[in-house]
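hey team, just a heads up i'm posting the complex here instead of the shared drive bc the drive is being weird again. everything in one block, sequence lines first with there labels, then the predicted structure for the whole assembly after. its two chains so it's a bit long, scroll down
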Amino acid sequence: MRRLSLASAVATSLFGAVALVSAALAQEDPLPSWNDGATKEAIIKFVETVTDESNPDYVPPAERIATFDNDGTLWVEQPMYVQLAFALDEVRRMAPDHPEWKEKEPFKSVLAGDLEGIAASGKKGLAEIMGATHAGMSNAEFTRTASDWITTAKNPKTGRLNTEDIYQPMLEVIDYLRANEFDVYIVSGGGIEFMRPWTETTYGIPPENVVGSSAKMKYELTDDGPVLMREAEIAFVDDGPGKPVGIQSHIGKRPIAAFGNSDGDYQMLEWTTKGPGRTLGMIVHHDDAEREFAYDRDSHFGKLDKAMDAAPAEHWVLISMKDDWARVFPEQ
Amino acid sequence: MRRLSLASAVATSLFGAVALVSAALAQEDPLPSWNDGATKEAIIKFVETVTDESNPDYVPPAERIATFDNDGTLWVEQPMYVQLAFALDEVRRMAPDHPEWKEKEPFKSVLAGDLEGIAASGKKGLAEIMGATHAGMSNAEFTRTASDWITTAKNPKTGRLNTEDIYQPMLEVIDYLRANEFDVYIVSGGGIEFMRPWTETTYGIPPENVVGSSAKMKYELTDDGPVLMREAEIAFVDDGPGKPVGIQSHIGKRPIAAFGNSDGDYQMLEWTTKGPGRTLGMIVHHDDAEREFAYDRDSHFGKLDKAMDAAPAEHWVLISMKDDWARVFPEQ
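-- predicted structure starts here --
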């Protein structure tokens, strides 16, 4: 019997070790950069509920769609949208081929670094800047240009690379959702082709899961083979009421979780949280001047006004960057 | 020693059985409804090449994108496109609410079953039929209507349900590609929202992998909650030169394999096969009047003319329905 009981003891202790490891894994904090509290609890409770087959609010994996705004939700959007910084840099890069820009607004203001002058040129001026920098080339060429630019582009205030100026707590939410068989999409007012070159390496989100604004493209056969030419006409604006349309067009399913930070995300949050079953709508509130920026109702970029007013009645959870996040940025 | 050699014999024969089963599985024909020959060989050789890590033409799984046209490539498009049959049925269903249609073309011809009268109304007439049946309702309502219709809709010539009027050999190609970690998309001139309700149950292709033509949609908040209203304006035509644009918009990657059957697939085939590395372009040629239909250059639906002429020089493989397919439709 001695050998049997030895074997039995070994088996028992092995089983015990396995059980302990399992329990440790099960209890490992999926959101370590979030402070404990109601906000973190809301995320975990939601995920546990919709993935629990015995719960009436269970959602099968194929219907677990989560959408994230990008500017101000996943990465820093102050002191200006990254894509605008790209457009201004492109004007500077292209200027030698356009001597006429020295005397022509809005290019003159861009080259002089006169932000007020750019602002004074209004929507028309901005459209001209976008037309000059985002159209008139093949999409492959635009992708190469954006890819090159993003490898060295830094935020002038934080000094970090834009692709490192991202919110660690939101990366954890993306990973947590994906670990729970969610299909995670970016749904941004930014340009779809501006984002695609770097979303996979930065957030783990592949090109086919990126929804954004787009320029009209035209298929052409050139001597060097076929190209998709970018035209100076907007095909789709994926912002505000455009976001639910972009979501339907690209995904064909209604999200059950949506994350935003501005009024441009209002309709995406509404479309998501007024859907059937259990849903989650969250808004990143930039209230941390010390570690990032503090802005909402009066900001030029990422204005948060109506969505903040509506949040309590709509049960949208405000994420306080200051109180809910133990850390803001990933370790370098 | 006797017991040891018995154990050894058992182990050897077990190992032998496992090896035999493995070999059988490895050699199981992935395309049983295809006759042996150059066409079947082209598919298998392509898949084996791009999935072989030691081959210079190896393609990592994330870049294995395959696109399939729908009408005439995956399901029967004669005697008319299924979506057109749906539109005509919808006119009949809605007619009691539109007494004026009895005297108004093209509706008068639809209600009289006068196909020539419908044809005589031209593009303008077709646009009116599509406007009346595909717009002016929420997308959810349209989806319900299309879902209900497709459950009983039959091909007037074959007598089969449209969702059973599908090509078994092409289903096998889809399954074979997916088993080899391809991401498979439908890229059709048909309406994206008309297809999405049934592509997953019919072909195993989920809504997010369907690219098609689309109506403009407008987000509205009604007393019953938010809706996406379908407007009587075309947002995107996913046909001909529109297909590469639709592919880029939805997938953001260039396919390495494309399957079509008509001139509407010309640019998709070109965009795919003029890409870098090893690619595959195939065209289903309807040359089987006995088991399906025989048509190409002169057909109203699925006209195959320029793409057939270009096929040899472009190395696009023509699939002869008559010679290459051992069976055409799935077993009932």
